Amino acid sequence: MSEPPLIELEGIGRRYRMGGEDFWALRDVTLAFRRGDFAAIMGASGSGKTTLMNLIGCMDRPSAGVYRLEGREVSSLGRDELAFLRNRKFGFVFQNFNLLPRTTALENVELPLLYWNRLGARERRRRAEAVLKRLGMGDRLHHTPAQLSGGQQQRVAIARALVNEPAVLLADEPTGNLDSRSEREVMGIFSDLHREGITVIVVTHNPEVAARARSIIRIRDGRIQGDGG
Hints:
By secondary structure, this protein is α/β, with parallel strands linked by helices. It is built from seven helices and ten strands.
């Protein structure tokens, strides 16, 4: 018997109220991701791809449909339960890095561990150091974001996303603010993580970035257009 999908979306929709009228950012989205997948979600600005990522990452709730994570229906979970899933099951990487500006690389990476009350300060530091060194940032532990290049800042952001050992890495336009060399380096990291068994889902409008994934999901006007390898 095959393992069920890690993530299942069935008939997912997301409705917003704008100017007194309903606007559907997503309509009837049905997708599945298995453990170890490396997928790219492609679409133009306003297509709904970031809304879809927010729903997958439990940062938003669907207005319609069913979302299962590891076989568990999560669409109606409470706020605390969703926060727990975000912290323990997902790692998030963003275009603008979202690092605290007056905080060192090490302290930025420790942040997700502060929500795990069982860990003491020494263990938090050990884990943060280990993942930064793994990403080639061992000599930048005490640098602030202003002292790092864009590529280095994104490595810190990836380390922060990985420090809780998530099942899924979600990246929203992760190379949008990087030069071509840093883009290749970051996508190389994602490829390595995929080979290690982490499920990687990248939202992008860049065909070169999407080409590194194992499958490409195209979205337009809130609807899935195709899923190809």
